[in-house]
Amino acid sequence: xxxxxxxxxxxxxxxxxxxxxxxxxxxxxxxxxxxxxxxxxxxxxxxxxxxxxxxxxxxxxxxxxxxxxxxxxxxxxxxxxxxxxxxxxxxxxxxxxxxxxxxxxxxxxxxxxxxxxx
Length: 118
Fold this sequence. Notes:
Shape: elongated
Structural class: mainly beta
Distance between the termini: 43 Å
Strand content: 35-45%
Low-confidence stretches: 111-118
Largest sheet: 5 strands, antiparallel
């Protein structure tokens, strides 16, 4: 998962090493490490959306970084053409519109298909 520092450079250390994060220079980290960093440093780092994340459809499950609630996961109800998604919010259980830029991960859920015939 690609992550980058938001305002100023920072160093992220873990038992096996470290990485320097600089604004505007995404770094590819293992997903588990990147999600932990996003939880521990809200407002200091962000996920950088990549093409696979943008390929969402109704029924996809996505994880997003909410500025208010941190990391949340919900099901996509609708994809808007203006860079927003309508998702089922896991805390309020209500439809909520979020910017696509908040999405940090998606689960591979195949799109619905309708078969003809019997």
